Amino acid sequence: MRVLVYGCGQLASGVVRSLISDATEITVLGDERSQLERLSSFPKVSAVLMEEPIMRDYLMEAHIATADAFLALSTDDHENLLVAQIARRMFNIEIVVCHVEEPQLQTVYTNTGLSVVSYSVGVLQDVQFAINSI
Amino acid sequence: MFVVIVGCSEAGFFLSRALTATGHEVAIIEREPHRYELLTENMGMVAMLGDGADREVLRMAGVERADAVIALTGVDATNLVICQLAKSLAANTRTVTIVKDPKHEPIFEELGIDIVVNWVQLALNALEEGIPGRPLRHLMQVQPTGMEVVCVTVPTWADAVGKHLGDLDLPPDSIVSLIIRHGHASLPARQTVVEAGDEIVAAISIGLEQAFYDIFTGV
């Protein structure tokens, strides 16, 4: 299985570490050099540094066409929605997960063939639960 | 027409002024408080302070009754989300945006944006039309067939000069539709002889410009 991970912040890095296995080949696309170096030191993990996102086609460079799964996990909701939709609609990747910080975006993009996830929904519920239990 | 414009930088400002001046109703969503104040105080424009990538803000600006929503935030990804949010509110509202990255043009069209303006292509077309002696001009694209109409001027040194049109090895799917010679247009035939200075107007497949150009200008 080949997995492409877009983003290299805390969430993306955590997901990459949890996915590491002999059967999974992971390519991480990110803009933080030190973080990418750390991640690509793991077995079967490679990295593509996106220095100037509009200058080159980094998705092609990461061989998006041959990916089995695409995870858009950067810290920018709009970028995630853009690349996730490209992966799903232009490259027909079956499994596309897109993280959004803004919960309303999760609702709007639910029926677009993407798995839209948002931990802020969980955080909101947890906060409400904590307040109510005081 | 009622138009909602999201993001009022220079492009948004001049566009809304032009629309207002021609009798259209415009509502502007601007996130930056300073710009918002300038718009309302000095320009007397109908502006709203808020994030246009928020569905509720779009709704309050009147997207549901708008004829068009124009996303001009200057960030391609954000413009895409704004247009898609607008569509989710009102499926019949036309969505319009300008892309910075030309490769986003076909992608945004595939993702449901009605009008995608590719300013790089526009600038290129304008340059090609405006600079004399520039040999291949793009006249129009025939969407969504993948064809375009181009025009090339035959230089005196070209190998094609003196040959019959029918003998030229044109790229597949390309059809010479018109020849303009000494200011007069004529319909070409296979036995038409190419002359220096001829303006060759043709429909060709996008991507075959170079091959087509080489036939009429090559030595």
* Alpha-beta content class of chain B: alpha/beta
Question: What percent of residues of chain B are in strands?
Answer: 25-35%
Please, what is the average pLDDT of chain A? 91
Structure annotation, total helices of chain B: 7
Report, as a whole number of angstroms, the end-to-end distance of chain B.
Answer: 53 Å
Count of individual beta strands of chain B: 11
Characterize the main sheet of chain B.
6 strands, parallel
- How much of the sequence lies in strands of chain A comes to 15-25%
What is the H-and-E element order of chain A?
EHEHEHEHEHEH
State the strand order across the main sheet of chain B.
3-2-1-4-5-6
**Sheet with the most strands: spatial strand order of chain A:** 3-2-1-4-5-6
Terminal CA distance of chain A reads 46 Å
Instruction: Give the low-confidence spans of chain A.
Output: none
Q: Based on CA inertia axes, which overall geometry of chain A fits?
A: globular
Proportion of helical residues of chain B: 25-40%
Helix content of chain A: 40-55%
Chains forming the largest contact = A-B, 16 and 19 residues
Tell me about the biggest sheet of chain A? 6 strands, parallel
Low-confidence blocks of residues of chain B: none
- Give the strand tally of chain A: 6
